[in-house]
Amino acid sequence: MIAIADMVSGDWPAVRAIHQEGIETGDASFDLEAPDWPGWDAGHLPAPRLVARDRDRVVGWAALSAVQRKSAYRGVAEASVYVAAAARRTGVARDLCQRLIDASEALGIWTLEAWVFPENRASIELCERFGFRVVGTRERIGKRENRWRDVVVLERRSQSPVFEQDRLASGRGY
Description:
7 strands; globular; alpha+beta; 5 helices
């Protein structure tokens, strides 16, 4: 049985290994190597940081990164979800994504973004299942191993009544 829990310091070796495994697919990140702990820690919000456990083994993780330093964007974050190859297509990503959305909204985040290579259909479909919509495609936005890559940009606006009341009261979008 899979349990979703907050990441603890002892999870880092497994989280890094899963991240590296995803990178090695060629369709998960522009990075060629998973960062060390200080680099990963600095690049992600303090919470939520989640892991999926199959008994005592970490089989997936999810975390958020800030998309902007400007205070107006404090409620917008980029979502990352990685699952070990052996646990893919078992519902782990779905469970992590649901908990990540719930936790993000509890923290006042009203928009989640995902930047996904178009070849990564499983990730795009997962996002769409959770209400993300395709905003557009950034064409040739970066190179990975000397090859220009496109990125599909998806976003999910919270349906929380708190954020909806703010939007309606202002007469504008978020």
